[in-house]
């Protein structure tokens, strides 16, 4: 686990406390001024903004903290939602924005800057037009048009959708697969179908919002186990199977354990072999969300199961998305033939939602062909080797420089710890000044004290790109004082430097 | 005898004297506040001691014995979970027909050309050259996916352009794009409705809204499908019966054109009720945007209600606009709030840019060609007339709704059997007459209890011969199937 330096922890608490007080004072004055010219809805929003719930520790379960998010985002909106005017490739154009009313509204200009992209999920470099995929996608667009305007079960199934599902099932290593148009909705519409009232869901404490929403929507009892700790999972399982359902003590109908392949904010790999062993012993079902790991890790890109040597037959439900490594959109569920047939019969996203756009489906089929080498070139294997090399190189260099870096070996997601809320916009703005675009994560997506900058490495990053990025990050790190791992006096000396930048 | 009696009497007297004198002993005497207290003090002290003794006794509690490791092991071994999915039955093996071409007014299924009434392609924009052109340009420039959520470099300038275009078209101040039609409602509702709020909702709403209501944890009250009297009574009950209701936030959620029945909501009546009882209205215009109203601006234009009176309008773009995704529009405060707290917006990748471009082009085409709406209206009325006297099937939808909903006149009693009959009709229509219609299938987790039926989505691109063919085919096939009962 990460050890926060004492001074940083204290100063972070102090900064957040200040922001909290500031937010409340401002809302108080807003209430007074709005009283004179308010519509019903403005007062409504004031109440919405006021519903915060500060939970210590892992805060991902609490999404009502609109006040906090709003305070940070309203103070520094230029760090979030930066519009781009080109494909989200390795080098892209960021649009300049300006604000006339103290960052309340941002307006676009026509000025753009070419920046190095360290934020987009472009693991294998399929984000921009690709020589193999794009002509096929355009051909599909002309043949099938952008949308079928119909759910899969009515008139939305084309030959392309069938080919896509076979291709995905083959790639992932399961007998069958079903594809939906959005990764978030895949979780939200599948979990309620698989488990309902009387079932138990045990979820990792740092799971993504879509999994949490799906679990909540199912109506089952939800319990949490410590992040990536199979021994605690075993404890929780034993305790709950022995006790049964709350209050009635009847035995549970079924138990599903939800884990992710790579956790998007930490870059850590799931301890899958141990967790699968525990679940087998206690007869629980495993639901694996491979949003970030499918296509990006493993010898041939088949995800964490391949990387960690777990047999895909042991994982009951495998879920993933196509947004990250395949440069498209949508999500899939892979499992046994019966499971997929059942989902096709009753999953709301299959029955009511428009089917996945045909050009997007073609992009997935083509990119899978490239990854497997079926297009005839060796580009797939080359991309996979390069992303591994790039991520390991970048991580080791950052660690040498003295940054607090988290993320496992081989994972393309690297997080640099910042801790202090004031350092978040500082890091972002300073990097942008030098044409490097990074992504910041603060509460509530990560625990209160552990704000970070998250870097996503792509297979298309060249060595020069990475070296430039390292140089810029090192300079900015010195300026802001985030090289926590440098020993003793060096560290003290750096933290004396300016902390808050306007 | 006498002596004995007098002896006993003397004994008793002397004992009494002794006792009285003992009790009158100076230590047993007390003078409190001028009153003399005699030997009762001794009795009282004894009573107190007994009380204290009883109080100090612990009440009997069953001793707590936590389960031993061995017992937990046994329980874990004994426990048998249900299987993840129920056994697969025959009806679960249903495979929909596979299209081999674009889902336009005509499509190719199994090599044959069929008339397609299963795609909600109301304006016939599927396959339109302008849409294909702009999408192709977008694909070449931006690739397919946007590779990130809106907050993390997933905001592409076409998204902002699309949002501005939609807001301009509808006359609102701002709008927000979602990457999936179904997720629009189930992300918007929990964003505004929290625990303790009261939501009055039609019982025929689709699953997206039902899921949003469940996630919001508010108090839900259903009213009878599209029945304004029932709505009025419900609102009356809530506001008068419950004093606290005045301080809670209250919402009404309706769909403009109901996916489950084809009915159109009487918006002017709803607005009148909303203003009387002080509720807020959320309207889902998925099937009315681009299909109702003189210029396609939806239910507000159809009923002549200014759009500012509706607090939040959402719509899926997978219908009239022939693209994918969804949007929500309203005042700028409503939209700004969603940009931070709507989970389907913040935690999900943004809409692929080529689909946003297609949406912009679709709105441009719609604005330039109001004749599409007129054609659509004509087609709807022709189809309605043609289907109104089919034996065994009756039309359950509004005469002006772009979804023509046919339900069984005489239901068999169970929704499953109804669905079997309707599917038989649809299958035969496809096989024998090449008319492709869809039945309304329900998920096991859908709470809607409206009757199932056959849905025909009318398109402005359908020709008169298509409509005629469909009417005749359905007449013939339904007579054949239902006579065989």
Automatic annotation (TrEMBL), chain A:
Q: What Gene3D superfamilies does the record point to?
A: Aspartate Aminotransferase, domain 1, Type I PLP-dependent aspartate aminotransferase-like (Major domain)
Q: Where in the cell is it found?
A: Endoplasmic reticulum membrane
* Membrane-crossing segments per the record: 6-25
Q: What class of enzyme is it?
A: transferase
Main localization category: endoplasmic reticulum
Known catalytic reactions: L-serine + hexadecanoyl-CoA + H(+) = 3-oxosphinganine + CO2 + CoA
- The record's EC number reads 2.3.1.50
Obligatory cofactor(s):
pyridoxal 5'-phosphate
Question: Which GO terms fall under molecular function for this chain's record?
Answer: pyridoxal phosphate binding; serine C-palmitoyltransferase activity
Q: In which pathway does it act?
A: Lipid metabolism; sphingolipid metabolism; Sphingolipid metabolism
Kindly state which keywords UniProt assigns to this record, in alphabetical order.
Lipid metabolism, Membrane, Pyridoxal phosphate, Sphingolipid metabolism, Transferase, Transmembrane, Transmembrane helix
Cellular component annotations (GO), alphabetically ordered = endoplasmic reticulum membrane; serine palmitoyltransferase complex
Q: Which residues form the Aminotransferase class I/classII large domain?
A: 114-473
In the record, biological process GO terms are: ceramide biosynthetic process; sphingosine biosynthetic process
The entry's family comment says: Belongs to the class-II pyridoxal-phosphate-dependent aminotransferase family.
What name is this protein filed under?
serine C-palmitoyltransferase
Q: Which organism is it from?
A: Salix brachista
UniProtKB/TrEMBL annotation, chain B:
Question: What's a Pfam family this protein contains?
Answer: Aminotran_1_2
Which InterPro entries does this entry report, sorted A to Z? Aminotransferase_I/II_large, AON_synthase_class-II, PyrdxlP-dep_Trfase, PyrdxlP-dep_Trfase_major, PyrdxlP-dep_Trfase_small
Q: What class of enzyme is it?
A: transferase
Q: Which GO terms describe its cellular component?
A: endoplasmic reticulum membrane
- Domain Aminotransferase class I/classII large as annotated: residue spans: 112-474
> Pathway membership of this protein?
Sphingolipid metabolism; Lipid metabolism; sphingolipid metabolism
A GO BP term here is: sphingosine biosynthetic process
Q: How does it sit in the membrane?
A: Single-pass membrane protein
What name has this protein been given in UniProt? serine C-palmitoyltransferase
Report the source organism. Answer: Salix brachista
Lineage, opening ranks: Eukaryota, Viridiplantae, Streptophyta, Embryophyta, Tracheophyta
Q: Where is this protein found?
A: Endoplasmic reticulum membrane
Looking at the UniProt entry, the stretches that span the membrane are 33-55
Q: Which UniProt keywords apply?
A: Acyltransferase, Lipid metabolism, Membrane, Pyridoxal phosphate, Sphingolipid metabolism, Transferase, Transmembrane, Transmembrane helix
Query: Which reaction equations make up its catalytic activity?
Result: L-serine + hexadecanoyl-CoA + H(+) = 3-oxosphinganine + CO2 + CoA
What is its cofactor?
pyridoxal 5'-phosphate
Molecular function via GO:
pyridoxal phosphate binding; serine C-palmitoyltransferase activity
Top-rank lineage group of the source organism: Eukaryota
- EC numbers: 2.3.1.50
- Which SUPFAM superfamilies did the record assign? PLP-dependent transferases (SSF53383)
Q: Which family does it belong to?
A: Belongs to the class-II pyridoxal-phosphate-dependent aminotransferase family.
């Amino acid at each position: 686990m990460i050890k926060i330096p004492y001074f940083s922890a204290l100063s972070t608490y102090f900064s957040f406390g200040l922001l909290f007080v500031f937010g409340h004072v401002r809302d108080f004055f807003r209430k007074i001024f709005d009283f004179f010219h308010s519509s019903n809805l403005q007062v409504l929003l004031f109440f919405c903004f006021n519903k915060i719930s500060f939970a210590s520790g892992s805060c991902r379960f609490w999404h009502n903290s609109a006040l906090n998010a709003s305070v940070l985002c309203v103070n520094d909106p230029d760090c979030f939602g930066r519009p781009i005017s080109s494909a989200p490739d390795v080098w892209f154009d960021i649009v300049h924005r300006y604000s006339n009313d103290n960052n309340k509204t941002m307006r676009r200009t026509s000025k753009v800057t070419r920046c190095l992209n360290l934020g987009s999920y472009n693991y294998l470099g399929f984000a921009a037009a690709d020589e193999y995929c794009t002509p096929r996608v355009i051909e599909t667009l002309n043949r099938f048009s952008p949308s079928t305007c119909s759910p899969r079960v009515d008139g939305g199934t084309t030959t392309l959708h069938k080919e896509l599902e076979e291709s995905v099932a083959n790639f992932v290593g399961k007998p069958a697969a079903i594809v939906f148009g959005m990764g978030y909705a895949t979780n939200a519409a599948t979990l309620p179908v698989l488990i309902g009232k009387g079932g138990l869901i045990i979820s990792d404490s740092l799971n993504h919002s879509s999994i949490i929403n799906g679990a909540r929507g199912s109506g089952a009892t939800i319990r949490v186990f410590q992040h990536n700790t199979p021994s605690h999972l075993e404890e929780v399982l034993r305790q709950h199977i022995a006790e049964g359902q709350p209050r009635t003590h009847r035995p549970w109908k079924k138990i599903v354990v939800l884990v992710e392949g790579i956790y998007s904010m930490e870059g850590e790999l799931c301890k899958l072999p141990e967790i699968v062993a525990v679940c087998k012993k206690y007869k629980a079902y495993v639901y694996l969300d491979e949003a970030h790991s499918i296509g990006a890790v493993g010898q041939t890109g088949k995800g964490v199961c391949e990387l960690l040597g777990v047999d895909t037959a042991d994982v009951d439900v495998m879920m993933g998305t196509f947004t990250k490594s395949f440069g498209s959109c949508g999500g899939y569920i892979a499992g046994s033939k019966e499971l997929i047939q059942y989902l096709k019969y009753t999953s709301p996203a299959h029955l009511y939602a428009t089917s996945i756009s045909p050009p997007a489906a073609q992009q997935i089929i083509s990119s899978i062909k490239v990854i497997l080498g079926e297009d005839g070139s060796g580009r797939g294997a080359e991309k996979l080797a390069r992303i591994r090399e790039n991520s390991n190189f970048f991580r080791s260099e950052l660690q040498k420089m003295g940054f607090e870096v988290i993320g496992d070996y081989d994972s393309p997601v690297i997080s640099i710890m910042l801790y202090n809320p004031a350092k978040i916009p500082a890091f972002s703005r300073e990097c942008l000044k030098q044409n490097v675009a990074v992504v910041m994560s603060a509460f509530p997506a990560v625990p209160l004290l552990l704000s970070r900058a998250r870097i996503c490495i792509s297979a298309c990053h060249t060595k020069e790109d990475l070296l430039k990025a390292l140089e810029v990050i090192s300079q900015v790190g010195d300026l802001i004082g985030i090289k926590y791992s440098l020993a003793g006096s060096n560290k003290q000396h750096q933290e004396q430097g300016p902390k808050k930048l306007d | 005898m006498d002596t004995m009696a007098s002896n006993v009497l003397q004994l008793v007297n002397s004992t009494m004297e002794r006792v009285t004198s003992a009790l009158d002993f100076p230590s047993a005497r007390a003078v409190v506040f001028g009153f003399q207290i005699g030997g009762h003090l001794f009795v009282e002290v004894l009573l107190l001691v007994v009380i204290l003794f009883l109080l100090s006794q612990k009440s009997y509690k069953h001793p707590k014995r936590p389960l031993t490791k061995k017992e937990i092991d046994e329980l874990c071994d004994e426990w048998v979970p249900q299987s993840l999915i129920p056994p697969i039955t025959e009806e679960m093996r249903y495979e929909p027909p596979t299209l081999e071409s674009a889902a336009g007014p005509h499509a190719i299924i199994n090599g044959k050309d069929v008339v397609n009434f299963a795609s909600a392609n109301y304006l016939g924009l599927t396959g339109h050259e302008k849409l294909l052109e702009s999408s192709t340009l977008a694909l070449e420039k931006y690739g397919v996916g946007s590779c990130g959520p809106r907050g993390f470099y997933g905001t592409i300038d076409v998204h902002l352009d699309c949002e501005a275009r939609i807001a301009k078209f509808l006359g609102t101040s701002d709008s927000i794009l979602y990457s999936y039609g179904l997720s629009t409602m189930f992300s918007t509702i929990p964003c505004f409705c929290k625990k303790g709020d009261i939501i009055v909702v039609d019982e025929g709403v689709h699953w997206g809204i039902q899921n949003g209501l469940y996630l919001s944890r508010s108090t839900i009250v259903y009213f009878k499908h599209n029945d304004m009297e029932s709505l009025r009574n419900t609102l009356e009950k809530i506001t008068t019966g419950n004093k606290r209701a005045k301080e809670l936030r209250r919402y009404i959620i309706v769909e403009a054109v109901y996916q489950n029945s084809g009915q159109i909501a009487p918006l002017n009546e709803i607005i009148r009720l909303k203003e009387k009882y002080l509720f807020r209205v959320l309207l889902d215009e998925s099937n009315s945007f681009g299909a109702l109203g003189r210029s396609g601006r939806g239910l507000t234009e159809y009923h002549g209600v200014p759009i500012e009176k509706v607090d939040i309008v959402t719509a899926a773009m997978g219908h009239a606009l022939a693209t994918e995704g969804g949007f929500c529009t309203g005042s700028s405060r409503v939209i700004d709030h969603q940009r931070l707290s709507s989970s389907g917006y913040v935690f999900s990748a943004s809409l692929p840019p080529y689909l946003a471009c297609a949406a912009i082009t679709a709105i441009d085409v719609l604005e330039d060609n109001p004749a599409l709406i007129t054609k659509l209206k004509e087609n709807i009325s022709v189809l309605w007339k043609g289907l109104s006297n089919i034996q065994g099937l009756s039309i359950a939808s509004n005469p002006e709704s772009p979804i023509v909903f046919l339900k069984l006149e005489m239901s068999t009693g169970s929704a499953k059997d109804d669905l079997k009959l309707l599917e038989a009709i649809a299958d035969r229509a496809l096989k024998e007459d090449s008319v492709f219609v869809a039945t309304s299938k329900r998920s096991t987790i859908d709470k809607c209890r409206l009757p199932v039926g056959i849905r025909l989505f009318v398109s402005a691109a359908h020709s008169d011969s298509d409509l005629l063919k469909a009417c005749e085919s359905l007449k013939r096939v339904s007579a054949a199937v239902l006579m065989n009962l």
